[in-house]
Design goal:
Elements lengths: L5 H27 L7 H20 L2 H23 L4 H4 L1 H13 L3 H24 L4 H21 L2 H11 L5 E5 L5 E2 L2 E2 L1 E5 H18 L1 H25 L6 H25 L12
Antiparallel strand pairs: 1-4, 2-3
Helix pairs in contact: 1-6, 1-9, 1-10, 2-7, 2-8, 3-5, 3-6, 5-6, 6-9, 7-9, 7-11, 9-10, 9-11, 10-11
């Protein structure tokens, strides 16, 4: 059995960081959204928008796509810097400006393709989780996760549209994936194999981790992330062993999270039905 620990470890660290940062950032972000939260219809609509964007990535010319992504990422950096710099716009413009300049002038260099693209990918994975994740409740997150997993399976294994979209963005050197060499090294024809995981999958794990944290507390939140990562590790080992080219990351993640949550919910229901110590004994007639 061939296995890798670099990507599962990265998934664990990034998800836990997103989970803990959300506890500190949620107040400011809710102020921006005026305490608005998604209803289940909003969660379904968001999935629809995501599907449309995937097809846009496939169909739109490369230059237009590059401009769209650079603008979206720059706005995300600007919003977060603006909020957490005390609303100083002259400070907030610096991170997006640096990002665009690095992409334009270093995009064709090994510094960008080997290092900086991963750095920005990780940054955006955390920011997207904090930004969008603050709009979800437990109920809408569960609905969103279930539907998105089904959609992801269809787009990856059915139509392969997700694979085409990922390939196009990789060719444009946009930070939409985190790419890590396998550890211990897995080699094919003398080259070390690298594993890729999309920012959407990091957001997916982060959303589940954040909502679990809010519902059950810090300790169980970390435990849920560990369960996701263990499941991901097993799937990834099978992918490496049997040479699978692409597989839905959402399925790899939710397979670990769902049984743990189901067991927790069942245990809580059982505890609620049991009499407490303060309950007076039932008198027989």
């Amino acid at each position: 059995m061939v296995f890798d620990i670099s990507m599962p470890l990265a998934l664990f660290i990034i998800t836990v960081v997103s989970m803990f940062l959300n506890d500190k950032a949620e107040g400011k972000l809710k102020g921006v959204f005026e305490e608005r939260q998604f209803a289940w219809k909003d969660a379904v609509l968001l999935i629809g928008v995501m599907v449309v964007m995937i097809f846009v990535v496939v169909l739109v010319p490369g230059m237009a796509l590059m401009a769209l992504f650079l603008f979206s990422y720059s706005m995300l950096l600007f919003i977060f810097t603006y909020l957490f710099s005390g609303n100083r716009w002259y400070v907030a413009v610096l991170p997006p400006a640096m990002f665009v300049l690095l992409y334009v002038f270093l995009g064709n260099t090994a510094l960008w393709t080997d290092y900086l693209i991963n750095v920005y990918g990780i940054i955006f994975a955390v920011l997207i989780t904090l930004y969008i994740g603050s709009l979800f409740t437990w109920k809408t997150a569960v609905i969103f996760a279930g539907i998105l997993t089904v959609v992801d399976i269809i787009l990856v294994l059915g139509t392969e549209t997700m694979v085409s979209a990922a390939t196009k963005t990789i060719n444009l050197r946009l930070p939409v994936l985190v790419t890590l060499q396998t550890l211990p090294p897995v080699t094919i024809s003398g080259n070390i194999v690298s594993m890729r995981l999309g920012l959407g999958d990091f957001f997916f794990a982060g959303l589940l981790g954040v909502q679990t944290f809010k519902r059950y507390g810090r300790r169980f939140g970390v435990l849920s992330v560990a369960a996701m990562v263990i499941s991901f590790f097993i799937y990834e080992a099978l992918i490496l062993t049997y040479g699978v080219s692409a597989f839905p990351g959402t399925l790899m993640i939710i397979t670990g999270w769902l049984p743990l949550i189901a067991a927790k919910e069942a245990l809580n229901r059982i505890r609620k039905t049991l009499p407490t110590q303060n309950t007076p004994p039932i008198q027989a007639n």
